[in-house]
């Protein structure tokens, strides 16, 4: 029974294999002393080893190390915990997979030295089953790493979107939306939603959309700005686009962009002064409370 042989080795030679696993990782350059203390690294290895040994023990009766079986739930949970901690500290996906695979060869050596099989069938089957299991574990670890990285990237993207599209209250009933970087369709939608929500929240009558920090103004960007201004008017407020430099003005003329009824100013300062004059003159009617 190949699985029983693996179980006996994992159980009887725990300390020796744990040490060999650690040494194998050191040889591969996987011991990150800059990221983990020796005790932390040893605790992670021990957690995974014990969960692995438990799964092997539960597989003796079936004599099959099926990676999909429920007996590996503890190992999957331990992998999730270790992977999350290691990737959070900067360990790469490849190193995480190698971290798991490093257990293969110490165990293979002990199987070769301890399995008494004239025809070699038990040894071959044991190595084959354990290889399939460890390869599946390494693949699962890789999937965990990728999933965690994807979640981190999405969270950072969401945070960047919030920082890239802030709404600032400049004065009573006057808000500004300073834009920086590139304005694509997704970000333009985010800007519009944030702006319209801020109009209601701040009871704003004038919205200044400042594009001083926008990298490039092309036809698509101009259309996004005009649509946002149109949505602002539908909310009962008025939009002013500021930050129109001579270069941007020339580009918009060459592109044939018509800003229509949307007012433009060369700077945020001039747009704010214009907004305050309108409020003082009572040009912009207050919305019904």
From TrEMBL:
CDD domains: STAS_RsbR_RsbS_like. PROSITE patterns: STAS. Residues 164-279 form the STAS domain. The keyword Phosphoprotein applies. InterPro entries: Bact_StressResp_Reg, RsbRD_N_dom, STAS_dom, STAS_dom_sf. The keyword Phosphoprotein applies. It holds the Pfam family RsbRD_N. Transmembrane segments: none annotated. It comes from the Bacteria. Keywords: Phosphoprotein. This is RsbT co-antagonist protein RsbRA. It comes from Palleronia abyssalis. The gene is rsbRA.
């Amino acid at each position: 029974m190949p699985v029983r042989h693996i179980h006996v080795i994992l159980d009887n030679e725990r300390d020796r294999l744990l040490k060999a696993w650690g040494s194998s990782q050191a040889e591969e350059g996987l011991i990150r002393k800059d990221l983990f203390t020796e005790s932390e690294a040893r605790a992670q290895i021990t957690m995974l080893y014990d969960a692995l040994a438990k799964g092997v023990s539960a597989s003796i009766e079936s004599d099959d190390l099926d990676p999909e079986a429920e007996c590996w739930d503890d190992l999957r949970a331990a992998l999730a915990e270790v992977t999350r901690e290691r990737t959070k500290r900067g360990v790469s996906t490849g190193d995480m997979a190698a971290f798991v695979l490093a257990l293969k060869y110490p165990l293979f050596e002990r199987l070769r030295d301890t399995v008494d099989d004239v025809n070699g069938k038990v040894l071959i089957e044991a190595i084959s089953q354990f290889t399939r299991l460890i390869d599946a574990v390494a693949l699962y670890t890789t999937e965990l790493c990728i999933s965690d990285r994807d979640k981190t990237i999405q969270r950072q993207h969401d945070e960047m979107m919030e920082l890239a599209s802030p709404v600032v209250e400049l004065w009573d009933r006057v808000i500004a939306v300073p834009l920086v970087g590139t304005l694509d369709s997704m970000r333009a939608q985010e800007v519009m939603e944030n702006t319209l929500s801020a109009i209601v929240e701040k009871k704003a009558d004038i919205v200044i959309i400042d594009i001083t920090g926008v990298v490039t103004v092309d036809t698509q960007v101009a259309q996004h700005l005009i649509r946002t201004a149109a949505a602002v008017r539908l909310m009962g407020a008025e939009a002013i686009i500021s930050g129109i430099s001579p270069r941007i003005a020339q580009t918009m003329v060459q592109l044939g962009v018509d800003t229509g009824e949307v007012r433009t100013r060369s700077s945020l300062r001039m747009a704010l002064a214009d907004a305050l004059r309108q409020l003082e003159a009572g040009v912009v009617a207050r919305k019904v409370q």
